Amino acid sequence: MKPVTQEHMHDPANGVNGDCFRACLASIFEEPLSEVPHFMAMPEVEWWFSFLDWLAEHGVAPLEIRIDDGVGIPAHLDNCATILSGYTRRNPGVRHAVVGKGERQVHDPHPSREGLAEVCTAWLFVAIAPEATP
Questions:
Q1: Looking at the predicted structure, is the pLDDT value of residue 61 above 70?
Q2: Which domain holds residue 61?
Q3: CA 118 to each of CA 57, 76, 82, 95, 129: distance values in angstroms, whole numbers, following the listed order
Q4: Cys staple from 85: which of 5, 66, 69, 121, with CB 3.0 to 4.6 Å?
């Protein structure tokens, strides 16, 4: 994992969607931020399919685990790269994303590096069969 800082801070009053999720992907996949699409700036339906296509190009698919449902990540996956999503003290009503190892926060792409106060979701990346990639 190569830590990347987000470029855009969430500022809905000025029509700006933050790119913390994008910076997390860049960190995990060790790519320049400019090479990762800003999925959260896309229309609601389009971002998901673009995200799936981008991940497939990297040979993986997403697996979402709802931490706030009490499921959690099994202990044997504690060292797996994850994107953790939840809420910060800085902006309690807005979802934010950080890089995790299992459920442990290891890199907050926001310049404050404050991390999440509440983790709701974990995204893991599962290898897909080579013949399934574009």
A1: yes
A2: 12-132
A3: 31, 22, 15, 10, 34
A4: 121
**Tally of domains in the chain:** 1
Identify whether the C-beta of residue 98 lies closer than 8 Å to the C-beta of residue 105. yes
SS (H, E, C) the chain: CCCCCCCCCCEHHHCECCCHHHHHHHHHHCCCHHHCCCHHHCCHHHHHHHHHHHHHHCCEEEEEEEHHHCCCCCHHHCCCEEEEEEECCCCCCCEEEEEEECCEEEECCCCCCCCCCEEEEEEEEEECCHHHCC
In this predicted structure, the answer to whether residue 134 has a pLDDT above a threshold of 60 is no
CA 63 to chain centre: 12
Residue with tokens 């040979």: 59
What pLDDT, on a 0 to 100 scale, did the predictor assign at position 131? 64
Q: What is the pLDDT of residues 26-35, one digit of tens each?
A: 999 999 999 9
Which residue is it, tokens 């009053």?
13
Residue 2 lies in a domain: no
CATH of the domain at 102: 3.90.70
Q: CA nearest 120: which of 77, 53, 72, 57?
A: 72
Within a domain: 108: yes
